Amino acid sequence: MTDVICHYEDEYLLVLEKPSGLLCVPGRGPDKQDCLSARALQRWPDALVVHRLDQPTSGLVLMARNIEVQRQLSQAFAERQIHKRYIAVVAPQLQPRPELADADGWQRIDLPIAADWERRPLRVINHETGKSSQTLWKLLAQENTAQGLPCSRVLLSPLTGRTHQLRLHMAAIGHAMLGDALYADEALAASAPRLLLHAAALSFVHPVSKALLQFEIAPDF
Asked: Which member of 54, 102, 110, 185 is catalytic?
């Protein structure tokens, strides 16, 4: 197993960096036992999972080092007291609509998400059975891939934490993420060697010291 990149460590919690392609927790089968939590346990035997990123997503992951801190951090996530920002690259290019944005340039996607039981692990937008789901997005830059595909770099802020929320919400408004094997068309899925989605920033109040902790790491794409 490869060593874990650690951005913060104290006796109560850890802030780690997960590479794209690595599971957060063990999956089913012997070939899916290598994961961030297993690697963390080799170095910190008390490490406990607080939240997860999808396997193809890279970026910052928070872990606790005792049950009480795990409970407090999980509650903070549920109460939206832990703030996350993601960077993604989507296509086709997003056109600015300032009249739809708030004063800080954010636009909101509010679409309910449900499991697609016949095509698991896929999720779908379903206004009858879906759970309320909101994502804020902001245009960062217009770009082109090395192959000349016009695309947009966006900053994403999930207000809820549904499975595949960011990937599905962007695809639902017609701008799927490059390298997304689940929600992009075949050409767009093949346009990048990995899913271009990265958990770039994390900020929260330390459950014990009450200090404000803020972390930020740039994507490798």
From this structure: 54
